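Work Package 3 (structural annotation) set out to generate three-dimensional models for the target panel prioritized at the project kickoff. During this period the team completed the workflow that converts sequence records into discrete structure tokens, so that structures can be stored uniformly alongside our sequence database. As a representative example, we reproduce one entry of 264 residues exactly as it appears in the project archive.
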Amino acid sequence: MDTDTPLDTAYRAMEAAPEDDAARLRFYERLADTELLLLLSREPEGETLDPEVFEVEGISYLLVFDSDARLAAFLGKPAPYAALPGRVIAGMLAGQGAGLGLNLDVAPSAYLIPPDAVAWLAETLGQGPAEASARPEELLAPGNVPEALLTALDGKLGRAAGLARRAYLAAVRYDDGSHGHMLGITGAREGAEGPLARAVNEALVFSGIEAGALDVVFLDDADAFTARLARVGLRFDLPEPEAEETRAEVQAPGSDPEKPPKLR
């Protein structure tokens, strides 16, 4: 009925290689990053949502679609919905014991996502980066960085338009003898440090690298350390922000990340 979406592509790759953990992780990363339309039983009331719940073999499922055309094709009539990132919906369902019905009957990515998978996704997304206090002593060109991590970083930073200007990836040796890799982010917008750090942490988690670590620092363009990092680091340029559209004073549920919507 329509062209394939990124979720369709990721789902096909996962289905084609059921033993491939990397393909499974890429699907769930895409699910978390995609804006999904959550089917509701009635219009939202403030930040409270009343989703339609369907029972399949005694398990409750909420229905989500990755386009309004697919939602309309499934129902055959207009219906209320809330447009929310998959990560927000997974967080709302944490501890609820419910699954997600994705694009059922209307797309190649039609999939009943079981409750344990939704719970795993919510837990994974809820694991923020840890703080460290070691001081870097030496910066080197990045070495032996898995292609999966570079691809994940490029994707995450590419979707962070307007949050910062650029980032540099370099190998680092610390004053306590430890070593690893560091991502230095410059020109971060005020308040964007937390979302950017979480995005980088997710890139590491969803790349499937076990026991991996990637430190994140936020720098000014004029810092001497930034110049050192730029000389040896792999550079990522973040996209420029799109022109802001005039927004209505009444925001849609979920538009404020500090106030996620609640399920009735």
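Confidence is low (pLDDT under 50) at residues 245-253.
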